[in-house]
Amino acid sequence: MTSPAVPYATLLAFARYVDRTGPAKATFVGGLRKQRESRSGFNPHGQLIKALKSDIAFHGAGRYLHAVVNEVKPRWKPLYEALLPGALTYLGTLDKDTDLAQTRDAIAMLGDLPVKINPHFGLRHADGQAEAVRLHMDEQPPSPETVMATLHLMSRHMDQVLPHATATLVDLRRGIAHRPDPSVKTTQVEQWLAGEAAAFRTTWSVAA
Predict the structure, then answer these.
(1) pLDDT, tens digit, for every residue of 164-206?
(2) Among 54, 146, 187, 191, which is 20 to 30 Å from 65 by CA?
(3) Are residues 133 and 50 in the same domain?
(4) In what order do the strands lie in the sheet with 176-178?
């Protein structure tokens, strides 16, 4: 396990970081460090993700998603009810012959900052094309910065994650899939992310 003293981020955390400005950046990193030190943190979306994957794998047409909303603990039921319509919309965009594909995690180095690249699942379409999918489940839609950082870092390490696949960020509440924009200049994104990573490291150290 990474020491709390060592700057480190998941793709989710780093994508949320680049979306913030000014003092909110420092507050966010300070919160991440405290969470790491206390080893706290819980993902309430796990059962929903499993249900979505089951609907894809077994061509359930939403059966598993509907079931999990009824089965989840009362505390999380409103969250699952809010995510259900968009999840069903996204599921409906997939061809009935689409199957799950195995993905692997990777570590992206942005300067001296390790960022864990961890897709939620992979997809293999009937035409042979593949996608590595991250889900965005926040109440607000992903910002352009969040989309760009997520897709760029996933694409950068796709040879490890799911060779020859396309990086996809799905805004699950709205059922919208975001994919890389070919007009975006990779070198400029790299420079931007390197600056963000350096600032993240500095802020992490100050928060000690």
Answers:
(1) 999 999 999 999 999 999 888 999 999 999 999 998 888 887 7
(2) 146
(3) no
(4) 99-101, 121-124, 130-136, 166-171, 176-178
